[in-house]
Amino acid sequence: MELSILIARIMAVIYLSAALGGFFNRDFFPRVSEDMYKNAALTYLLGLLALVIGSLIVHYHDIWVGDWPVLITVLGWIAVVKGIMIIAFPNAMQRLTRRLLAGAAPRIVPYFALSLGLLFGYLGFVR
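Above: the chain's sequence. Below: its structure in token form.
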């Protein structure tokens, strides 16, 4: 449970930071995405980073229970799949990201990140 709390605390800070960035700089994340896919080395490194972090979470926190720690495991698996997809299919991921960022996602995602940040903050710091 100590590892779950540590990861929840880290995720809380990450998601709350992303939410604040999304609320105050709505045009920043679409620009970051465009810049990332313009640079092949950066795209590869960010895919590798997602794969490594996801693999570490899955390896050390492979907890499939009917309680909140399963959320961390699921996010770890999502990071693994995302990393593989970015490395193996960067053009397809770029097209998908462009479609998502062209719609309502830049307005909705900060609320989703805020919700996850508050949830993980509660689970990691308060509970």
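The chain has a mean pLDDT of 94.
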